[in-house]
């Protein structure tokens, strides 16, 4: 319909702070997510710092990863922390029953994870084993990690294993998907267990927020029961939602590359459901917690496609394309809009698994389009959200009918205003005018992420195919920003 889209940014009515932790990432013992992806061991020929891949560390530092969640996922409710401490020769080899049935030699354990988070200057989020463990095991793990130096036998054991001072544990997950792989529980039983585990897990070094296993998608009954029975003992409730092109069938999700436009459209429509899920879970939480003390932690989100042909299906490997970058941007906009309740999130997952930030193959590494989306949105970390309204055309394809443009805006801690504009339409460039209420600016510049093909991606052969480029086609005059957004693009601008 060619009409100009009008958006309004209310910098004169600032909203809540956008917690940096909504840019958190999830790293599970799954496929090559940890082994090969993050950890290659000290003796590896792949360049590393004390066993951590140097290329991966550098890439993650560059986007200021604020938080890392570990060790699962489904893996967490089978994990026994004592298997992963002490000399390597004494660590048991187990079978990773959830993910491909491969050996788990426990060479990446508590010290290796905490060291990783520390190297990234990221907050640590550890998920405890509720499904097959005991409250005592979790309590001792927390004591091992956080008790003051020399204060107990566990603190001394930690020192003997190379770490005298306690670590800070920002988040403790009380199990994972307790309705499914975490133990197939009823919410009433899960809530009772949550209260038991939460009661005895006590941090010796600073505030540790306790995150309960929450709902997936639209399981509102789970949220209601958990909030009613555990709302006072927890600090957060997790939400998991995976975006799929064909959301009707988990066995036929659709390919990561080479998809038709209909699946571009259905993927973006599906991901936008995140807004509805957050809105409705939050409304239930409001009944029990009108102050919003308990956060909704979207600690697993992202795309889930059919695995890369020829890969071990249990490794959940998939390529990552421009479509994924658009998914990431739309979700960041949604989290920003719900910043009051959504104060932490973790994309699934960090390296080589599902909607990964980075892909590795032996010594090679590529940054995915999703990585570049996170790079573009760094100014959102700890900024003040600004209310936005958008009025304009739709993107339609088959039964899909969604807004063509998504806009998000923040004021960073130094006072600068940043505006992000996403055009989901893969065919049409769209003119946009943004009314900047309460902003004094005369110019805008920034970067764009786009490509010719919907499934443009970075391969090991062409690692730089999709990457941000400078964008200077925006004009600011008379309190309005005007530009033309290329099809299937993410544009992030800083106003001056
Ligand atoms: O991220 C992969 C898996 O998805 C996680 O282990 C589980 O929590 C979820 O079902």
TrEMBL record:
EC no.? 3.2.1.55
Q: Which SUPFAM superfamilies match?
A: (Trans)glycosidases (SSF51445), Glycosyl hydrolase domain (SSF51011)
Please tell me whether the keyword Hydrolase is annotated for this protein.
yes
The chemistry this enzyme catalyses reads: Hydrolysis of terminal non-reducing alpha-L-arabinofuranoside residues in alpha-L-arabinosides
Domain Alpha-L-arabinofuranosidase C-terminal span(s) in chain numbering: 299-489
Entry-linked InterPro entries: Alpha-L-AF_C, ASD1_cat, GH, Glyco_hydro_b
Protein keywords: Carbohydrate metabolism, Glycosidase, Hydrolase, Signal
BP terms from Gene Ontology: L-arabinose metabolic process; polysaccharide catabolic process
GO MF annotation: an example: alpha-L-arabinofuranosidase activity
Pfam families in UniProt: Alpha-L-AF_C (PF06964), ASD1_dom (PF22848)
**Record has Cytoplasm as a keyword:** no
Member of which family?
A: Belongs to the glycosyl hydrolase 51 family.
Q: What is its quaternary makeup?
A: Homohexamer; trimer of dimers.
Q: Tell me what this protein is called.
A: non-reducing end alpha-L-arabinofuranosidase
């Amino acid at each position: 319909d060619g009409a100009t889209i009008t958006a309004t940014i209310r910098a004169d009515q600032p909203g809540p702070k956008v917690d940096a932790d909504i840019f958190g990432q999830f790293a599970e013992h799954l496929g090559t997510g940890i082994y090969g992806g993050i950890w290659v061991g000290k003796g590896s020929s792949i360049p590393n710092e004390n066993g951590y891949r140097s290329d991966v560390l550098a890439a993650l530092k560059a986007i200021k990863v604020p938080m890392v969640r570990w060790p699962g996922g489904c893996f967490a409710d089978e994990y026994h922390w004592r298997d992963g401490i002490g000399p390597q020769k004494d660590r048991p080899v187990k079978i990773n029953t959830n993910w491909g049935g491969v050996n788990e030699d426990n060479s990446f354990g508590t010290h290796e994870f905490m060291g990783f988070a520390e190297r990234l200057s990221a907050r640590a989020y550890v998920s405890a084993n509720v499904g097959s463990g005991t409250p005592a095991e979790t309590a001792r793990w927390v004591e091992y990690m956080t008790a003051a130096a020399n204060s107990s036998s566990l603190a001394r054991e930690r020192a003997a294993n190379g770490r005298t001072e306690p670590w800070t544990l920002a988040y403790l997950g009380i199990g994972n998907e307790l309705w499914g792989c975490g133990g197939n529980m009823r919410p009433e039983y899960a809530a009772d267990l949550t209260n038991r585990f939460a009661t005895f897990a006590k941090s010796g070094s600073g505030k540790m927020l306790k995150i309960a296993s929450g709902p997936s998608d639209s399981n509102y009954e789970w949220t209601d029961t958990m909030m009613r029975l555990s709302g006072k003992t927890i600090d957060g409730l997790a939400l998991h939602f995976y975006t799929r092109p064909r959301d009707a069938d988990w066995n036929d999700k659709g390919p990561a590359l080479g998809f038709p436009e209909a699946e571009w459209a259905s993927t973006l429509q599906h991901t936008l459901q995140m807004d509805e899920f957050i809105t409705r879970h939050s409304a239930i939480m409001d009944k029990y917690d009108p102050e919003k003390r308990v956060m909704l932690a979207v600690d697993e989100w992202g795309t889930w496609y059919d695995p890369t042909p020829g890969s071990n299906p249990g490794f959940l490997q998939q390529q990552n394309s421009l479509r994924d970058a658009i998914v990431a941007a739309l979700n960041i906009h949604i989290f920003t809009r719900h910043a009051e309740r959504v104060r932490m999130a973790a994309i699934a997952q960090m390296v080589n698994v599902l909607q990964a930030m980075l892909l590795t193959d032996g010594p090679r590494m590529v940054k995915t389009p999703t990585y570049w989306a996170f790079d573009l949105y760094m100014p959102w970390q700890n900024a003040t959200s600004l209310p936005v309204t958008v009025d304009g055309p739709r993107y339609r394809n088959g039964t899909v009918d969604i807004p063509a443009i998504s806009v998000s805006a923040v004021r960073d801690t130094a006072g600068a205003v940043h505006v992000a504009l996403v055009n989901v339409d893969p065919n049409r460039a769209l003119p946009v005018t943004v009314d900047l209420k309460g902003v004094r600016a005369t110019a805008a510049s920034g970067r764009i992420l786009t490509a010719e093909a919907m499934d443009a991606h970075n391969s090991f052969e062409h690692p730089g195919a999709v990457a941000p480029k400078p964008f200077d086609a925006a004009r600011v005059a008379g309190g309005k920003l005007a530009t033309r957004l290329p099809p299937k693009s993410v544009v992030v601008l800083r106003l001056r």
